[in-house]
Amino acid sequence: MARKFFVGGNWKCNGTSEEVKKIVSTLNEAEVPSEDVVEVVVSPPFVFLPLVKSLLRSDFHVAAQNCWVRKGGAFTGEVSAEMLVNLSIPWVILGHSERRALLNESNDFVGDKVAYALSRGLKVIACVGETLEQRESGSTVAVVAEQTKAIAEKISNWDNVVLAYEPVWAIGTGKVATPAQAQEVHAELRKWLKDNVSAEVAASTRIIYGGSVNGANCKELAAQPDVDGFLVGGASLKPEFIDIIKSATVKKN
Ligand SMILES: O=C(CO)COP(=O)(O)O
């Protein structure tokens, strides 16, 4: 089964309502390949989700940046998967390295979150990635395998999962992974899925790259056989996000 190119825009904790409307109108005016070629999902902060969803073109979709690990209730400050479903928010990003590092989200906790969100019917962008220290000590593959294992142990269906490989050292640093570095880890992740889940899941699961992707470097990355798209931070707030969406056409040639 062909893997449809996937481009996610993670807006992180940025924007005013005016800025958000401006970004959406830029996206709405853009000419991009059809939904058959590329799946586009933007992820504004929670408070802007309804606004963005109401204004955004119908061929693009929205994602939350997090959700609570189980059913909602007395969890002050959290947003539940049920609430996202209630607002018809189809996607959620889970396990982003900023949350793993700054909010101490463990592999196990992320695995539980992914399982719960899927059980409620959400689609999940699950993030994995190594720190610079881990890369330099040669443990990149072991780290991402461990993070993926913590998810794989808790889910039985990968249809609604996109795996995002986001090396921590490349996030927000301008230090993008080379196409060869990205390809190498993506291929290892796919092999891990083949060996530990199934050949079908390995062949059909999209593995996207995140970390300093921009309009200038996206095409070369997109050309790598195991790079199925991107999760974009900083550049997703700028018009060059449209160029990144268009890099999907690299796969067609
Ligand atoms: O964290 C990221 C996407 O989730 C990547 O961020 P940057 O594109 O700003 O490096």
UniProtKB/TrEMBL annotation:
Regions crossing the membrane: none
Cross-referenced NCBIfam families: tim
Subunit structure: Homodimer.
Organism this protein belongs to: Citrus clementina
Protein name, per record: Triosephosphate isomerase
Pathway: Carbohydrate biosynthesis
Keywords linked to the UniProt accession: Isomerase
GO terms under biological process: gluconeogenesis; glyceraldehyde-3-phosphate biosynthetic process; glycerol catabolic process; glycolytic process
Pfam families for the chain: TIM
Family matches, as HAMAP family: TIM_B
Annotated family: Belongs to the triosephosphate isomerase family.
MF-aspect GO terms: triose-phosphate isomerase activity
Stored InterPro entries: Aldolase_TIM (IPR013785), TIM_sf (IPR035990), TrioseP_Isoase_bac/euk (IPR022896), Triosephosphate_isomerase (IPR000652), Triosephosphate_isomerase_AS (IPR020861)
Cellular component annotations (GO), alphabetically ordered: cytosol
